[in-house]
Amino acid sequence: MALVPGRNRSRGRRFGEDAVAAAVALGASALAVAVPTFARNLRSSRFVEPVGGLERMGAAAVAYAQTHPVAQAFPPSVPMTPAIPPRGRCDVDPVEVWDQPTWAALDFRPAAPGEAHCYAFGFDSALSPSRSTFRAYAHGDLDGDGIPSTFEITGQVNDSDPRGPFIDPGMFVDSEVE
């Protein structure tokens, strides 16, 4: 087969204006869907630590109260741990920070030992012979501006309430996107 000059050379392929416009439109559509989804997932992931941590802490407080008299229904108060929330970052705590008796009674750590977490947690209890209450809270400053995000749940047990110990409905949230 003889080569015909000019016919067997590979030619550069050019895309027409319609093809380029379609590709740009397709890319823009993909970004229009992906960017808000990514932003929503990122914001939601910031809530996993405080919300999940408080749910675990509340469930543990109720379980503790089910095995104790009303006057001793919840473990003693413990200050915010760590004492100051990480500012604009997540930190790894020394293991012994979470070995306090209240955290042990609630079997609570915000993250596995050696893993970083972004919130500080606290637990307050008010005990009396007829009614005892607790408040569990989480504070974080994810953007490092000095304004903390606050998440809080409360619970109680009354000697005259047939339901036994329970977590109050709802969660208090303040400045959640700080």
Observed structural traits:
alpha+beta, 6 strands, 178 residues, six-stranded antiparallel sheet
Give a short overview.
It is built from two helices and six strands, in the order αβαβββββ. With 178 residues, it is an alpha+beta fold. β2 (119-126) and β3 form a beta hairpin.
Description of the molecule:
With 178 residues, this protein is α+β, with helices and mostly antiparallel strands. The protein has one domain. Helix content is 30%, strand content 21%. The chain has 2 helices and 6 strands; from the N terminus they run αβαβββββ. Strands 1, 2, 3, 4, 5 and 6 form a 6-stranded antiparallel sheet that branches. Strand 4 (149-158) and strand 5 form a beta hairpin. The longest helix has 49 residues, at 17-65.
Mind sketching the topology for me?
Blueprint: H1 17-65, E1 78-81, H2 101-105, E2 119-126, E3 131-140, E4 149-158, E5 166-167, E6 172-174
Antiparallel strand pairs: 1-2, 2-3, 3-4, 4-5, 4-6
- In DSSP terms (H or I, runs of 4 or more residues), the helix count works out at 2
How many beta strands in the DSSP annotation? 6
Low-confidence stretches: 38-44
Share in helix: 25-40%
Shape: elongated
Q: What letter string, H or E per element, gives the SSE order?
A: HEHEEEEE
| Assembly of the depicted chains | single chain
* Structural category: alpha+beta
Q: What is the makeup of the main sheet?
A: 6 strands, antiparallel
Strand content: 15-25%
Q: From the alpha-carbon coordinates, what is the Rg to the nearest angstrom?
A: 28 Å
Instruction: Give the termini distance in whole angstroms.
Output: 74 Å
Mean pLDDT comes to 84
Instruction: Count up the domains.
Output: 1
